[in-house]
Specification:
mainly alpha, two-stranded antiparallel sheet, DNA-binding, Arc Repressor Mutant, subunit A, 2 strands, 124 residues, homotetramer
Chain lengths: 124, 124, 124, 124
DNA sequence: GTGGTCTAGACCACG
DNA sequence: GTGGTCTAGACCACT
């Protein structure tokens, strides 16, 4: 499980960590019950601050991807603890709205957008 | 052409203005050659800072949606000045990547994502 | 609106701040749209760190009590944004379970507990 | 008498043990004079540290629920050794205060809270 | 001047 | 040795 942080882009570090872990779950590298590195350890290996890692871990916990077990560590949850629900679908739609609007305005058809989605979906 | 600013969400105001104008173009309310309100006027009617409107206008100009014509104001460009190109497609793919990753991780199929896209696409 | 922090009890400071603000809402001192002091200002007046105040504010935001408006401040939400829902009722039940169990074990009747609840409910 | 420890919630293990034993007393599984397993034995069967069990036992002793008898072990006390007194009622009220405040703020009536209490009270 | 993000370093409870 | 909490102080984007 490799996490790459890019300080030059403007995505916050904690989001990059969050996204990398979600990707790890998706790729099957992080399976249910598997333990993440301690916040100190990951912080040190990424050369970032412990609190930054903790922030990522707490967001993942809030989103149901992991359980933070005090004095034990952070472990990956079961799939159905982060299966898409109504609330998530609303957020997803919101996130997509301005992207799709711009794409349509720039002349892309729904099919063209969908083929990009499909490409991303299959290559991860 | 109505622009609604929502201070409570964390999308920057200049992005909300930008998105609203792109939406206006898409809906046919803002057609080629049509003039946008002066930044002073729009700022006043939205109760935001003039620099915020200018920032939105400059991004729109950079993206090819409008031209800033001296002593004339800001006018909407022709469609082919902002038609999707290679560079835009790369940015689009980047924007979609982490969204699609999370959606897949949460159990959505590519078809389900596409149907959300389709829904957004058709209702705007 | 007075907030009192007690360093000697073991309730975290950010929870004390959170609870004080909820109490303020309940007492009608903090009404919809009213602005909370900036995190710096409140931190300074309570002699605690800004991050501690921010943590309280973010929890209140997450729970629907306030909106955090970047570069503007934190404002109280409308009642129906924090009206009890299913999720809250579950949490509430969890919180009450061990308390009620102990009370029953110590010989209190349901009526006795309820009269304590009633007393608290009416005096705030 | 079954004790279930849940590492994933953030209630300390020693409190979970304490609560489980109080529940056992309430359900009549642990009656006056009955002996609790040795801390070593319970720790082993729960896969937790012996000190954690001892901490739970010591709190139970302090609260009057059990007596620690040398060379005999830990035995359940008589009901009137842990019957609710003034001190306990004060603690109880304190514990309930912030819970009730939030519930009221979220629009619950005293009756609604009491019906939740009643439900919990009767099902244990 | 606001909140957001990040760093560095500390103490604590729990186990 | 873990995560939780707190402090002190910094820079940034946005307005």
């Amino acid at each position: 499980m490799l996490i790459q942080i890019d300080m030059s882009i403007d995505k916050p570090i904690y989001e990059q960590i969050r996204d990398a872990i979600i990707k790890g779950i998706l790729k099957g590298e992080l399976t249910k019950g598997k333990q993440l590195p301690s916040s100190r350890a990951l912080a040190s290996s990424l050369s970032v601050n412990m609190h930054t890692v903790n922030k990522a871990y707490n967001i993942l916990k809030q989103d149901g991807f992991v359980s933070v077990i005090k004095r034990k560590g952070v472990v990956i949850n079961d799939k159905n603890q982060y299966r898409a629900d109504e609330a998530y679908l609303n957020i997803l739609e919101e996130k997509l709205e301005s992207i799709v609007t711009e794409a349509k305005c720039r002349g892309l058809t729904a099919d063209e957008i969908n083929s990009i989605i499909g490409k991303i979906y299959n290559q991860i």
